[in-house]
Amino acid sequence: MKTDKFTQSEYWQGRVKGDIDLGVVGQRSLGRAYNEYIYKRRLDVLTKTLGSIQFEPEEANVLDIGCGSGYYVGYWQSLGVRQLHGVDISADSVQRMQQVYPQYSFTRAYITQEGADARFPGKFSIITIF
Questions:
Q1: Nearest-angstrom CA–CA distance, 110 and 90
Q2: Confidence (pTM)
Q3: SS3 for 85?
Q4: Rg of the chain over all Cα atoms, to the nearest angstrom
Q5: What are the tens digits of pLDDT across the range 4-56?
């Protein structure tokens, strides 16, 4: 009898090997077009919400939990956010984000483990987890 134990980090590390796109980090069974659509809708809602709270990107310190493919990191960058910290369970994702977005900081962490928040620097004005 096979008794391989499921681990989140191995699961995500396996999913993000190679190119990371919305077909990898989104709902794989529904295809890339669906994922592109749903991610765009999420951004529409986020943009509307930020507008309702008079969000000032230059002043914000954003924590993006599950930064994965960098989809939302790119969004924050396009808004002009100067301070962002991304967290992901996958070492490959964190390494890739550090290369693509060197102006931000990234940490590999299991956010469900006790004390994980101690690894996130500072206080945050906005925290996202999609």
A1: 9
A2: 0.76
A3: strand
A4: 15
A5: 665 655 555 555 555 555 555 566 566 778 888 888 999 999 999 999 998 99
